[in-house]
Amino acid sequence: MDDAAFELQKLDALLAKGKWYFILVFGVLYWGMLTSLVVALIHYYISGDPFWAELQRALYIYPISGILFGWFAWVQIHRKRDKLRAQ
Question: Whole-prediction pTM value?
């Protein structure tokens, strides 16, 4: 099996889990939570504000933004799969 067929198979398996699964797991959990943690750490070291207060603030902003990030990534994966199928 060549690389394009293997990648197409992986993308199909990922898309088979569903749109909302992808958005919630990859957008909100992975991107949103990790970005919240990184931003809270950066603010803690730069400004000296309490870490937990920064994390609480970041946990409101970035997981919500993760919905948009997850949707955008979902659209990109669909486009990539369509290009691979066209080959």
Answer: 0.84
Provide the number of structural domains found in the chain. Answer: 1
CA distance 76 to 82: 10
Asked if 11 and 78 count as a contact pair (C-beta separation under 8 A), the reply is no
Helix 34-47 vs helix 51-86: crossing angle, to nearest 10: 140
Q: What does the pLDDT look like over 10-46, one tens digit per residue?
A: 999 999 999 999 999 999 999 999 999 999 999 999 9
52 DSSP assignment = H
Range(s) of the domain holding residue 32 = 3-8+11-86
* Coil, strand or helix at 1: coil
Residue 86 identity = A
Q: Given the structure tokens 């909100």, which residue do they identify? A: 28
